[in-house]
Amino acid sequence: MANYPLSDLIGAAVYDSTGAQAGRVRELAIVPQQDVSKIAALVLKTRAGVRLMASAQIAGINGGIKATVAATEFAELGSSEGMLMLSRDLLDQQIIDTNGRKVVRVNDVELIGEASDPFVLKVGGVDIGARGAARRLLKGLVPRAALNAFLRKLSSKLIPWEFVDLIETDPARRVRLKISGDKLEKLHPADLADIIEELAPAEREALFQTLDEEVAAEALEEVDPKLQASILSSLDTEHAADIVEEMDPDAAADLLSELPAEHSEQILSEMQPEERQEVEELMEFEEDTAAGRMTTDYMALLPTARVAYAIEMLRHFDGPLESMSTIYLVDKDEKLVGSVPLARLVLANSAAPLSDLSEGSHISCHPDADEREVAELFDKYNLLTLPVVDDSGVLTGVITADDVISLLRSKL
């Protein structure tokens, strides 16, 4: 196998089977629907016009590109639709390094040639280092031997092709090129949020179009609050509603409150009735109060419920993980009477009633408690969650530790 920088191949001479120069390389093309890394064809500039040299027609690369056929057998380029052109679509473009979890700019592309029958040329990775930039900048300006000696002194930063995620703002072209968010969806939401914040508005919108709604919701919750409303406003109403439905109700309420009332109402109208009701109720509270910070996604059972039933409820709980640290005990009037930490539940006899596991006292706050009081309670009692109860003692919601962290971060 041999390595070939894309910048060396662009402009390289092509010789047909007779040994005559048939033209020069203008582009290298991949057809992702067929193979996401294999070069499908070379686009040539010839005296007869633009021609397409299929990868199967490459005999080898040595002092130029040798063909197995006569120049007359090169096909005319009818349409480049569905093709990823390496020079046009990658060089100097931003891509996402899913392994390094960051946005980077492509300086060159590294190709790998396999001297098989037929000759195989594949994309090995993208060069984001100084070597790739210098190679392109000095090509044709410095003698080849001197340039190669200089390049050897520079570091090469290659990102393997399997860790590259392309950013394509044209929805139709994303479909044709089979660009999906599969790689991005494996990232931690916080890392994905960092990537989103680095992108330009059009690129952010394009990225959200490729993500699963649940992944998009988790990432959006981690994005800087100043950008959240802008991102949501860039999406069509139906798609925005799908994402908001997957968000924690308290986060969704805070976000929708930042939008113009008309736009917020349009999104709410597209949501499922149950999710819409939860969010609308939370939007009624002041953001800087306990009620404005709480979520209505929590687990509550009667004190007489058995451990086995509580464990089964845990298996089917689709709320945030942060809310799973505690099961709250309420009476028939929904008044808070106790709490059971998850650790106690795991170690208990499955037939035991939850009342036997309840802690003797529980810390709570009023819906009107301000943010400072909430933060002090978390700090003083080392809480993971804090129940919010009204004047009658009814459990109305729960504040989680990540809510407090977000609160404190917004004050920095």
TrEMBL record:
<protein>
    <submittedName>
        <fullName>Mg/Co/Ni transporter MgtE</fullName>
    </submittedName>
</protein>
<dbReference type="InterPro" id="IPR000644">
    <property type="entry name" value="CBS_dom"/>
</dbReference>
<dbReference type="Pfam" id="PF03448">
    <property type="entry name" value="MgtE_N"/>
</dbReference>
<feature type="domain" description="CBS">
    <location>
        <begin position="357"/>
        <end position="412"/>
    </location>
</feature>
<dbReference type="GO" id="GO:0015095">
    <property type="term" value="F:magnesium ion transmembrane transporter activity"/>
</dbReference>
<dbReference type="InterPro" id="IPR038076">
    <property type="entry name" value="MgtE_N_sf"/>
</dbReference>
<dbReference type="InterPro" id="IPR006668">
    <property type="entry name" value="Mg_transptr_MgtE_intracell_dom"/>
</dbReference>
<dbReference type="Pfam" id="PF00571">
    <property type="entry name" value="CBS"/>
</dbReference>
<dbReference type="InterPro" id="IPR006669">
    <property type="entry name" value="MgtE_transporter"/>
</dbReference>
<dbReference type="GO" id="GO:0016020">
    <property type="term" value="C:membrane"/>
</dbReference>
<keyword id="KW-0129">CBS domain</keyword>
<dbReference type="InterPro" id="IPR046342">
    <property type="entry name" value="CBS_dom_sf"/>
</dbReference>
